[in-house]
Amino acid sequence: MASPTEILLAVLPLIAIAYLMVIQYWPATRAMPVAWVTAVGVGVVGWQMTPRWIAAATINGFITAASILWIVFGAILLLYTLKQTGAFDAINAGFASVSEDRRVQVVLLVFLLGSFIEAAAGFGTPAAVVGPLLVGLGFPPLAAVVVALTGNLMAITFGAVGTPLIIGLQDVFETTDIATPAGTSVPEWVAQIGVWAATFHVTIGVLLPFIGVAMMTRFFGEERSIKPALEVLPLTLFAWFTFAVPYWLTAYFIGPVFPGLIGSMSGMVFTVGALKAGFFHPDDDWDFAPQETWPTHWVGDIKPGETSPREGTIAADGGVVTERMPLWKAWMPYVLLAALLVLTRVWTPLTDFLTSTLVLAWDDILGTGLDNDLSLLYLPGAAFVFVHLLTIPLQDMKPGEIKDAWVETGEKVMPAVIALLFAVATVQIMIQSGKAAGIDSMLTILSDATANFAGGVYPFFAALVGAFGAFLAGSNTVSDILFGTFQYNVAQNLGVSRTILVGSQAVGGAIGNLIAVHNVVAALAVVGLVGEEGRVIRLELIPLAYYAVATGLLTMLFVFVIFPGVF
């Protein structure tokens, strides 16, 4: 058993992150480099890590971070491409035409469209995209941010085409010496973890669409009640069902890349179809009180109802004529993306080509035995960029629009570069510290101490640990990188299912996104309400508490009662 001094040293990098970001409100771009320096100091003092091992672990982390950044870059580039062409205006108008009821719009735009954007792009983009769409429809900006952050939680674990599980767990586990179920590779085992994460989400997420609507009617409705939300409960359950069934089946039969995409597309098709056929629509449309009665903190620099359609041709009278893009054309880039991702994962000759071409590999990094690589063509970032190039002629992008899409993408991605590089490098130092010294690593010592302290009730808190990581780092992926190995070791020490406990971690990483400072700031910024972070986080604690407690109870039930024999 580790000494108190060893435990204190091992936890110092995490304390540095928590103190700087939570207490001092430092951005991750400043806090993560300090955490890395702290981890280096701890590695030298407590684990006798040599400069060679520190450099190798850091390089290993940078390579993994580059993989994440490549996906982020491509996803955001396609997102801003569609904003420039007016495709998102068309998609939004398509949903708005289905119903003028704000409750229905929350189900369609927040739960379904938001989940689709999360599944395709991830990294905080749904709230940053859906929020302005809701404001354009006439939602109070503060309400738009609150509901936009709440609604896509089920998709986050599989966001950016499975990045949290593939990069956050699979790539990390492949650099460690952990055991997997007999006859199962690390990717196959991570796919099993994804199934358990989907099982948690499907069970607990049954109320998620309803919670989004209830948050709106209770805190932003004229009557300040959840009663109007109860009137659309059948619709929220139907939307959940048409999302959840294909979502879980996809996780089970295909893997962690497509559950969010297929689930959200299925939900959109069936829910919109049912509404247009006359099912589930409330008798009376619900709306907000008149704008002049709204509190001042609900509205910032952007007024509800304002839109920014794509600039059109100049009419004879000198006015601007705007023509809405056909809905099929607006959706086509994401249809192409889904098809391309499926093709590159199921057609073996293409998969083999992509995984062996333009691969930047570094084996035996600095003679330490660490290996890592950056597969530029196989990672989803390449698919996003390729579809961006196809969209240029497909949606007739002008040179100025192409430039603006790239500039906006750079502005969005750059703050994440330093944060991700040093966050992943910090974790790698904590993981590799044991290998460097031939003793237990920092994370192993922390897991032992946590298991000894919490004892048999630890599984209840596993998701909260994941949520804490996402709150600190603003990313489910980084939370999985920070705590995936930690959760594995705790489960092993307790003698409970490692698969289920790591699955709970993957769900917890999604929960923490509700209050992740980065996400909240980004969502408020795009609706002109920067400065209201405290109000938003306080409200988001409500769905967070529900989801975290329910996940904790379900984890305890799974590992001790229903599935105690799972690896």
UniProtKB/TrEMBL annotation:
Keyword Methyltransferase belongs to the record: no
Topology class, membrane: Multi-pass membrane protein
Pfam family, one: Lactate_perm
Major site of localization recorded for this protein: membrane
Record's subcellular location: Cell membrane
UniProt-listed InterPro entries: Lactate_perm
Keywords of the record: Cell membrane, Membrane, Transmembrane, Transmembrane helix, Transport
Transmembrane segments: 7-26, 32-50, 62-82, 106-135, 142-169, 189-211, 232-254, 260-279, 334-362, 374-392, 413-431, 451-473, 544-566
Coiled-coil residue spans: none
Superkingdom in the source lineage: Archaea
GO MF term (any one): lactate transmembrane transporter activity
Keyword Metal-binding included in the entry's annotation: no
GO cellular component, one term: plasma membrane
Alphabetized PANTHER family for the sequence: GLYCOLATE PERMEASE GLCA-RELATED, L-LACTATE PERMEASE
Stated name of the protein: L-lactate permease
Species this protein is from: Haladaptatus pallidirubidus
Taxonomic lineage: Archaea, Methanobacteriati, Methanobacteriota, Stenosarchaea group, Halobacteria
